[in-house]
Amino acid sequence: MEIRPAVVPPLADNVPQASPAEVSRLLRFRKGLDFGGVDTRATPGFEGDKLAGRAAHVLDNEVLSDLQERLFANARTGKFVKALLLVLQGRDSSGKGGVVKHVVGALSPHGVHVAAFGVPTEEEASHHFLWRIYRELPRYGHIGVFDRSHYEDILAARMHRLVPPKVWKGRYDTVNEFEESLADSGIDVVKVMLTISKEEQAERLRDRLERADKHWKFAPSDIADRENWDAYTEAFQDVLDRTHKDHAPWYVVPADRKWYARWAITRILVHHLERMDLAWPTGSFDPEAELARLEASR
Amino acid sequence: MEIRPAVVPPLADNVPQASPAEVSRLLRFRKGLDFGGVDTRATPGFEGDKLAGRAAHVLDNEVLSDLQERLFANARTGKFVKALLLVLQGRDSSGKGGVVKHVVGALSPHGVHVAAFGVPTEEEASHHFLWRIYRELPRYGHIGVFDRSHYEDILAARMHRLVPPKVWKGRYDTVNEFEESLADSGIDVVKVMLTISKEEQAERLRDRLERADKHWKFAPSDIADRENWDAYTEAFQDVLDRTHKDHAPWYVVPADRKWYARWAITRILVHHLERMDLAWPTGSFDPEAELARLEASR
Predict the structure, then answer these.
(1) What's the CA angle centered on A59, arms A55 and A65, to 5 degrees?
(2) With an 8 Å Cβ cutoff, is B100 touching chain A?
(3) Lower Cβ count inside 10 Å, N or C end of chain B?
(4) What does the CA dihedral B228, B233, B239, B240 come to, rounded to 10 degrees?
(5) CB-CB neighbours of B11 under 10 Å
(6) Which of A7, A226, A281 sits opposite B297 (nearest CB)?
(7) Where does the Polyphosphate kinase-2-related domain lie (chains A, B) (predicted)?
(8) Residues 6 or more apart from A163 whose CB is under 8 A from it?
(9) The sheet that has B83-90: what strands, in order across it?
(10) Which pLDDT belongs to residue B13?
């Protein structure tokens, strides 16, 4: 058995882990992938345990933070039109909130915009389904995060029979065109489908029911949805099959191990930001002249 | 010389630090306080060094996070109308951005709304000065953070002669009435005025000028404002004298030591949240019955 120091977490450099590009490749949806057959306990691209995964994630947070600050700084120049939109979907208790807290939470709040989409309010329901979505798009230089999204207007609409089949079926095309227009306008759309096993969900819902400080996270409808497990699997499969595009790819992330999902999503975000080639913007002033002015003002 | 372990930060329990209520009392503005005379290197309520301060801050983050989650959870019940609004003001480089990153950044992004107010855009300038402010108010259950705020419509308006004196002078009353209406509607307004010395500002601006990755944080107007140091001191004093109210108090926070300002502001936020008496909300379901349903669904 390997001997580890008690306090210092093992350095991630010692752990075989796939590069951001490689992790993205491994988890990217591809035609023919059977969503229901994904091993939800797997850790593609990471050969290490929970402790090593957490340590690797902490180190990656620094990389992600640096990239975010570059994205933000460039937008300040006024001539930069890029943003990133992370869309999180998955069953109840699959860990979407945890990703917001632990992945997005590692970033400076200045450049982040989080929107959680619940059951539409009366005002939202009286508009086109993309109305509330457009209002929450990230501005340039920001990372936007959707905790649930316009995909609920297909998924929940279908499962809860909120609209006739003809309506939600027509939304695949609408969503594809919408996301293409985002990409055309400089918003890099990264879609993550978290997937957990039925057993793992039972454990998580049980935890919410057994702890009074977690009751607020539970709704009886969570169990009703769970009883429709297979129908949901089919609905997720259809969403993946019909809306995975090069300009807005889906990543299917095994999420029984929370630490893995967080590590993997961080790497996917790093991959997408690295492709933006984010150099620090140059100022529109002469630093030497400004330093002289500064000295004169002492 | 004291011997310290190399890795483990000293526990804050060993360091004499004032309670959240006491820190709030110490830093709270009071009539007669001379803003220009505040010792910007002081650490009221904390008897320890930077390392101890950072360790104490890390521990406090846990407390603040717990309170924020309770605030957020209560709002989910739909019968709860409380929020907190943190207003950050201070000279250029006084550390407002750092507070957003390190104090607010410790919270789950779900329940936080950060708004940075810059020079008004054309659209903003064509509206009442509170128009853009109202749009960024936190919803109930959230902590809102204003990095600069409606006070710029008094401060910048005055210093840069953007409007006639009669106009910005009239805004003290407008702002007081506005903040009173927020308090009446359940929004706890906490206003923080960070204060640094002229020497410390020179060091920070120099750092921004000497590092290419910090140029984007610098604007030549920062030095012009610095050259009006005393006039700004007077403008800050007037804001404090005229807008410090029980329903929307100002806290004057010495900020030459960044670690101190962050620790102190965290304690002030904890103090305000603790006064809200945030119990965990009870669910509108029977946990035992739901657990039975859950078991049946396995």
Answers:
(1) 140
(2) yes
(3) N
(4) 170
(5) 11
(6) A226
(7) 64-277
(8) A157
(9) B112-116, B143-147, B83-90, B187-195, B250-254
(10) 59
Query: What does the pLDDT look like over A191-235, one tens digit per residue?
Result: 999 999 999 999 999 999 999 999 999 999 999 999 999 999 999
Angle at A168 between CA A167 and CA A171, to 5 degrees: 95
Other beta carbons less than 10 A from residue A6's beta carbon: 6
B166 CA to chain A: closest CA distance, Å?
31
User: What proportions of chain A, in percent to the nearest 5, are helix, strand and coil?
Assistant: 55, 10, 35
Nearest Cβ partner of B220 from A74, A280, A290? A290
Domain spans in chain A, listed from the N-terminal domain onward: 12-296
Type of residue numbered B52? A
- Residue by residue, DSSP assigns B284-298 as SS-HHHHHHHHHHT-
pLDDT tens by residue, A152-195: 999 999 999 999 999 999 999 999 999 999 999 999 999 999 99
Tokens 């950072």 locate to B54
User: Element (H or E) spanning A153, and its range?
Assistant: helix A152-159
Report how far residue B266's alpha carbon sits from residue B23's, in angstroms, rounded to the nearest whole number. 10
Q: What is the DSSP letter of B48?
A: S
Domain B18-296 -> CATH class: alpha beta
Nearest CB partner across the interface for A76, out of B198, B216, B282? B216
Cβ–Cβ contact A58 with B under 8 A: no
Residue ranges of the alpha helices (H) in chain B?
20-27, 50-76, 96-102, 122-125, 131-135, 152-159, 165-184, 198-210, 220-227, 229-243, 258-274, 287-296
Q: How, if at all, do strands B250-254 and B112-116 pair?
A: unpaired
The domain defined by A12-296 carries CATH number 3.40.50.1820: no
- The length of chain A in residues reads 298
Nearest to B189 by CA among B236, B143, B239, B131: B143
Beta bridge partners of B7: none
The SS3 of residue A277 is coil
Beta bridge partners of B193: B89, B252
